[in-house]
């Protein structure tokens, strides 16, 4: 089979062309069954179709003799086919054509044969006329009502029913035997009936014949005598049975007795296996597909309270021939070798006979290149002209097998069979198949290329099938391009191209929504679409699944549908469908139309709408086989019209009392024809629906029983797969109870080996699966399914392909070897296994590899095994192992894997990777800083990846965003420190360190020097953390009392970090208190140090296996503008755990990880208004981690990153400015007081009294009252207010003329104002004098 694409980019299957453009012997592609039973009412058609080039000629044999088709006027042969059609329109009897037929298809290269087809005419004889006397029996006695159906071809199915066409109820006491008789273990009074009728159904004529009914009369007695069990069937103490392998075994034991006996089954020498099914109340033992191990002695035991009895049945299993290895067609080039194998088994052992072109091989012409060895024909150095069709016939007394296999000798360069330069359009993210059918002899090798570049496409994202099809597992935009398939053999090569275009999916991004509109208003449904710009789209609207007619009223634009002036006829479900040439999308919404009714008595008052009343007076009429008319009277709609009626049903057989929706009808109908299912006792009720809601259900109708009928539904989800290496489980979804359509639902399952032409095997079961036993390992089967009941069979399902079970691959890949080892990858080559040894669906070649050791002395490595799969079906497969450690010793081996098992390992291979660049140094720290020098120390990388030859240190001065000239220093591998002399103690440096091997320098670790103001303090602890490829430094300085932890965030570009010092309480007294701070060139941080500690570098420890019960949970973050409080819960041992705080800045993806102790932690120096992601994990067990938490800091005012408030020059400048301002204020106030604005007093320190007293001569007397003296600087007012100053002079003195001194000062400013109260508004001059305020300040 070849895989092709339909217009939607979905794979489908098609057969290869029936006639290739090359010479080919005949192949039988269709033939009738071996045992062919026909309906005498129809024409007889005996099928025989074959393909080949030249077109085959056909001939027939009947009963072993040549059948001259042209001499019989009733027999015709179809054109270009060997199918016979026998017509009886002009008379004749079908029985005259019964016999054994065989078809021969021949061309210049050979002859192929069909099976011998035994043609028989179906017979359905009438029941013999008989008069049945009433059966009279005493209560408690056993009884057998015989059926004895007329012999038919094929035999009829029997079942018992009464006159009401209802099945006779069966149980442990009453049941039907395998021969059709009705058995009563004991008769009860309730068994008295007049209509026990046996029915025989003939499959081919689709007729049911009914035997005259029995009348059973039971004579009752006061006491029924108890009796021991006795067998009604079978009789005697033992019996025997022979059954063929693969057929159904049915053993039966039916016993009489009072009380009713129970039946138990045993097998001598062992227990009943899982294949055994007990049916018919344990009276029948059934094995659906018998195998040799089912032979033996079976015993049934019947027992009741009175006694027990046994019966032995000896089962013998024989077998007609069955295939172990069926011969298949061979296409060979001249001088090639090949073989045909015909391997079968059976009981007795089958005889193998070889034929060539339909004649015994012994009587054919000698062929020196051919040798027959038992069940195998071996061909050596075949020559042109020896093409033929070979037949293998395997037979014994129980049957035969016949298989055709041609040997075609061809010498042909590759040919492409598909269309040239095909354009395939697919939707993004879909599984895609590109077809490239090809042919050639010898068999060509096929490879795919993309855009004419690179090596062949196979493995990973791609998969190449043996038929040439390329699968792209998930088509992405980058997969678009031109794909070339190239087929080549020793005679040449041929290529074809396929252009693949990957399109965006078509989607409705704004779908229509359900809405309710008032009658007369406008309704609008949205349908906004997003699709690939290169694909034209078509938007169509449906109403209630029917095309919507867009007339003058309805308007459709690009994104919507508008319905003006809606009315009741517009109600329904509107569907928007968007289509392109390769995909589509749909969305639906319902429109409900409501209306408001005005009261006739009061036009302005609106009556409220409500749910409708339930319908009444349900009536059934016009009964038919599968329908009936239901009529009802609608209830009150309560001011909202009924939009639809819902009809529900209840049946009393499967789910009594459960009401289910049957159908829905428009609100203007009240009489409908209901379509019903067969064999159901219906009862109906109706509900009304309006815009408000649904009514209560109506009262139920009377019941109506439909007649039984064959099933009309095909069971769904049919599939076949193997559960072990020698079986195939066929399963399906059962029919619903309402789909049974009649009594005794069963399933008829067919299966046969695919592409073998063998007969169908079948079984009938009541279960929902069937297991085919004794299959070959992983072979394809054709499967079909049909449901049937006592009335007849239903439609057949489509034929699907299933597979028997997989087994472990038997052969390992060989000659595994490596090529071109590099530092981190290596190419591998191997010899593939024979596909037949995979014994399942080939999945991949799986490589197991592990790091055995590092070639760096003393370096311990993790020897954990890793795997990588390679999918390849080419003759010389290759692959690449990546992500290896440089300078290491590796071991590996390979296995082949199917979807269930792995095969044996290949040869073990050792290889060594080359040197690479080293990892980043473990640490880089500034361990000492003075006014004259800086001392650096570092540690070698954890993974040197080779022999270290030294270190490269680069450094430069930094000042904000400005950097100085880069200086480079080189060191030997044993040097791990460096001392830098400082020309200026205010300079800051940034250092970059990398280790080197012969290959080159590795990853760089960077650190910045601290500010010079930190001189003299204890050496800080330096934490080097990797952040987006750069190193960032965090210092920990011990403090006296509390553990204050400040964790710096990743710096945004450009990298500037504010100085922070934040405390966090911790409850671990033994742990030294620390403070983590980040520094900048101009930041100064004061720290009191209780006990200086030596600098301790952080060492990365190896990961240990974590305790499964230790976890981190409840990570919470409380963000502020530039910091966040972080806490979490854990159950690590107290005081012995450390954690890593990892946080990432969303804006640029920069990440930092810093070790911390116990929670809570204050995370400082964050960027205001920025979003972060944060998690906490164990420093010792990296796999134990909290969930990731996302948080965002709040915005705040912008502040300088450099704190200049503590700088001396800044303080001096501020003091000078304040002094100048003070002097200017003094001068200003003096000048204004001289201008008459303020009083001049000799005693500035004494406050004035609250009111100035006036003397007899009209002058003011200045004195103070100690009792009423206000506090200095205070203000008093009678009305609690402050008297504002007036610039007008008119309010003061007599008549408004102001008096001035010689110096121009105003001396009348304290004269009482006219028309003012004497107690109003006087203030202390001390309080209002700026001069006094300045003096006070000074």
Please tell me about this protein's structure.
- With 1338 residues, the protein is mostly beta strands.
- Strands 4, 7, 8, 11, 12 and 13 form a six-stranded mixed beta sheet that branches. Strands 14, 16, 19, 20 and 21 form a five-stranded mixed beta sheet that branches. Strands 23, 26, 29, 30 and 33 form a five-stranded mixed beta sheet that branches.
- The longest helix is centred in the last third of the chain and has 30 residues, at 1208-1237.
- It is extended and about 150 Å long.
- Mean pLDDT is 80; it is low at 1-20, 597-607, 1013-1105, 1197-1202 and 1236-1338.
Look at the helices and sheets and give the structural class.
Answer: mainly beta
Query: What's the gyration radius in Å?
Result: 51 Å
Q: In percent terms, what proportion of residues is strand?
A: 35-45%
Q: Give average pLDDT, whole number.
A: 80
- Major beta sheet, specifics? 6 strands, mixed
Distance between the termini: 106 Å
Unreliable stretches = 1-20, 597-607, 1013-1105, 1197-1202, 1236-1338
- Helix percent reads under 10%
Shape: extended
Number of helices: 3
Say how many strands there are.
101
Keywords: Cell adhesion, Cell membrane, Cell projection, Disulfide bond, Glycoprotein, Immunoglobulin domain, Membrane, Repeat, Signal, Transmembrane, Transmembrane helix
Biased composition (Polar residues): 592-605, 694-707
Organism: Esox lucius (Northern pike)
Region (Disordered): 592-622, 694-720, 1033-1094, 1242-1338
Concise overview:
This protein has 1338 residues and is mainly beta. It is built from three helices and 101 strands.
